[in-house]
Design a protein that fits this description.
Blueprint: H1 2-44, H2 63-69, E1 71-76, H3 101-104, E2 113-120, E3 123-129, H4 132-164, H5 170-176, H6 179-182, H7 185-195, H8 203-210, H9 224-251, H10 256-264, H11 269-297, H12 301-306, H13 314-324, H14 328-352
């Protein structure tokens, strides 16, 4: 008996060694195509390397990150009359005149530029940043990602539940719902750019003018709120089918016997959804959210095609730094920040949805 146990133990060890040997090719490929390039990006982010330049590269540590992320809040003091010492007010609006941000924001060791002003407890403050464009790009990307992914999850779940039911023409419906996702993003962005045109050449202005809502000259891609709404609309239209496809795959793994048992127990459709469907769909939802958030946080083509340099995402600002400024070190630092954001979001989804490696 003892000898049999020893033989089984040796067999298990041999199988374990064989498994590690079979994994070696995959690990080598992973090292070559993922880990090494990622390590190069991390290293480049700590240098002043210039793209397509003969300039000597120097190691500068976290200097690029400090230039990207440094922010400073300064209080704007009221201006006082030199003779009377009284607060000076605007003669037309009667507002208190204050110091200029350019006079109070530090210039050393980095030059801070005004990002925005705000009031708090009766005082006026200016938020300065060494790179206001990047700070705005981060906010644009996070807002875009959160809203678009949420809408795609809700709409995708509705579509998945609809096409999961048995009805005539279900196969055709499942196929046709993938058409927006199959369109190349640049092509769909150009298509939406025409629809968003600021005159009656555009579809939306034509329709709104026809129903008496506007003069047919609404510029959807000019102001901040309408710009972001337009970006989200384009992304939701294109990628909701992808979200629906992933959730549909999760729905098909749920046994029908569970619904039959719930129905016997007297549970209505709404109760079945929250007690059976939603809990068992969490792993598929986690996968869908991770995939879509990963795409949304590194969104480039929609912003680049529709907005150009008028409004950046993190990825389009990365492109601007690399191609426009040829600052490869700064662009690499932006890439690392995008990677960290994606990693944090992925871990948050897994923890929030209670998905572990055993599911």
């Amino acid at each position: 008996m003892q000898k049999k146990r020893v033989n089984l133990s040796n067999l298990a060890k041999r199988e374990e060694r064989l498994a590690y040997k079979l994994l070696i090719p995959s690990l080598i490929i992973l090292l070559l195509i993922a880990i090494y390039p990622l390590g190069q990006v991390f290293y480049s982010s700590m240098t002043n390397r210039q793209f397509a330049s003969g300039q000597e590269t120097e190691f500068i540590g976290f200097e690029n990150y400090r230039r990207l992320l440094s922010v400073r809040v300064q209080k704007l003091e009221p201006l006082l009359d030199e003779n009377t010492g009284e607060i000076i007010r605007d003669p037309e609006t009667n507002e208190v005149l204050r110091e200029r941000p350019i006079d109070v924001l530090p210039r050393e060791p980095f030059r801070y530029r005004e990002y925005r002003q705000f009031s708090l407890f009766g005082n006026r403050y200016v938020l300065g940043a060494t790179d206001p464009n990047f700070i705005q790009a981060v906010i644009n990307t996070i807002n875009f990602s959160v809203v678009s992914v949420f809408l795609e999850l809700v709409l995708g779940l509705g579509v998945a539940l609809a096409v999961h039911n048995n009805f005539k023409g279900r196969g055709l419906m499942r196929t046709s719902m993938l058409i927006p996702w199959a369109v190349i993003t640049v092509v769909s962005a150009r298509m939406w750019e025409w629809m968003f045109a600021s005159n009656r050449v555009g579809l939306f202005n034509t329709v709104l003018y026809a129903v008496g809502l506007g003069d047919g000259r609404m510029d959807f891609l000019s102001s901040g709120m309408s710009q972001m709404s337009a970006m989200i609309a384009v992304d939701v239209w294109k990628t909701t089918p992808f979200m629906a496809l992933l959730l549909l795959a999760g729905l098909q793994t749920i046994p029908d016997e569970l619904y039959e048992a719930a129905e016997i127990d007297g549970a209505n459709k709404l109760r079945q959804f929250f007690s059976v469907t939603l809990p068992l769909l969490k792993p598929a939802m986690a996968v869908a959210l991770i995939f879509r958030t990963l795409d949304a946080l590194r969104v480039f083509d929609v912003f680049q095609v529709l907005l150009g340099q008028s409004r950046y995402s993190m990825a389009s600002y990365n492109y601007y730094q690399l191609i426009g400024n040829r600052n490869m070190g700064m662009a690499s630092a932006i890439g690392v920040i995008i990677f960290i954001l994606i990693f944090v979001f992925a871990l948050s989804y897994i923890k929030a949805l209670g998905v572990d490696s055993d599911d």
